[in-house]
Amino acid sequence: MFNKKIARTTIILLGCFTIGFFLSFNQKNDIGIPKNSKINGVSFVATNHKIESKHLTPVNKLNANWITVMPFGFLSKDSPKVKYNSSYQWSGETLEGIKQTIKLAHSQNIKVMLKPHIWMRHLWVGDLKFDNEKDWLIFEASYQDYILEFAKIAESLDVGIFAIGVEAKKSVIERPQFWSDLIDTVRTVFSGKLTYAANWDNYTNVTFWNKLDYIGIDAYFPIASEKTPTYESCYAGWLNHYNAIKRLSYATEKKVIFTEFGYRNIDFTALEPWNEAGNDTYNSLAQENAYRAIFTRFWGEPWFMGGFLWKWFPNHDNSGGLKNNRFTPQNKPVEQLIRQVYNLKY
Q1: For the purposes of burial, counting CB atoms within 10 Å of the CB of 23, is it exposed (0-12), middle (13-18) or buried (19 or more)?
Q2: Which fold does the domain 38-342 belong to in CATH?
Q3: Each residue's pLDDT tens digit, 228-287
Q4: Three-class SS of residue 166?
């Protein structure tokens, strides 16, 4: 009798759990994403011509459901002030160009993350620092103006996610209060979800994840050292990174987005995935194996939101290809793999 009661109670509890899980699994969150789907995104490169519907058709054919739109701001070695929306920029990076791309994406049911980038000639933004307080304050005031300008656009056009910064490694460590205050200020003009795109080797040094909605990582982690790494080697190479990212997600109760991820079709592609310089080799198999491993390792995880591959050019027919060994997967064998994965429902 006692055992029957236990068994009956267990069945009831399991039934309730199953129904509850099923319902929660199929609910939509507050930015309209079904909980059983991922952000299957591309980093959409701005151009110096007007974007048309035909330029987003290949994005839909890839089964991508999000794009990153990236308005660049610029710093020179002679001035700490961020400059943007300048006449010398490509039209697609200007205020009007960004608005037009966002509107066009939404018209094709593609969601948008707006992710302003700082660009510096001959210096990675992660190494940016100043020798005196005056220059820090000039930079921070102009950076805030730059971010708020696009945060207002994000709000007016119902952008799903806004990134407050990208790979500002030294600034995040040396000036954390600025970033914390910036988040508060951005929230006064933008009501959507916020993230920050931390570099892969710096995401654990970010002290303000608790104030954001998602942990953002530009996921160029070294995972394999072979010339042509196998899928198994790449998958195994993720283990320690995977465990550390998962621990942070659970500790902060924040889901993770790979704000950038990708691999070139070159030899040793998984050794220094961030490296855009040099290497005149071509290796499609290495690229496919690395992509397959990141998808297999992360895309089925409930704490992982998805990511934005780096990068995607609007003129698809003339982009990428087997004679191109840059990051874009366009017109390369790996594009078919991405299309298949982006069509899955998790």
Answers
A1: exposed
A2: TIM Barrel (3.20.20)
A3: 999 999 999 999 999 999 999 999 999 999 999 999 999 999 999 999 998 999 999 999
A4: strand
Report the interhelical angle of 95-107 vs 53-61 (nearest 10°): 50
Domain positions in the chain: 38-342
Name the burial class of residue 241, with classes exposed (0-12), middle (13-18) and buried (19+) by CB atoms within 10 angstroms of its CB: middle
Q: Helix, strand, coil shares of the chain as percentages rounded to 5? A: 45, 20, 40
Chain CA centroid to CA 129, Å: 24
Calpha distance 54→232 (Å, rounded)? 38
The answer to whether the beta carbons of residues 113 and 69 sit under 8 Å apart is yes
Cα–Cα distance measured from residue 4 to residue 38, given in angstroms and rounded to the nearest whole number:
42
What is the rounded CA–CA span in Å between residue 320 and residue 154? 30
Give the confidence band of 23 by pLDDT, cuts at 50, 70, 90: very low
CA–CA separation, 243 vs 249, rounded Å?
10
Q: Which residues contact 180 (CB under 8 A, 6 or more apart)?
A: 207, 208, 211
Residue type, 174: E
Residue type, 120: M
pLDDT tens digits, 86-141:
888 888 889 999 999 999 999 999 999 999 999 887 788 888 888 899 999 999 99
DSSP secondary structure letters along 224-248? --SSS--HHHHHHHTHHHHHHHHHH
∠ CA 46-270-37, nearest 5°, is 60
- Alpha-carbon span 331 to 322, nearest angstrom: 7
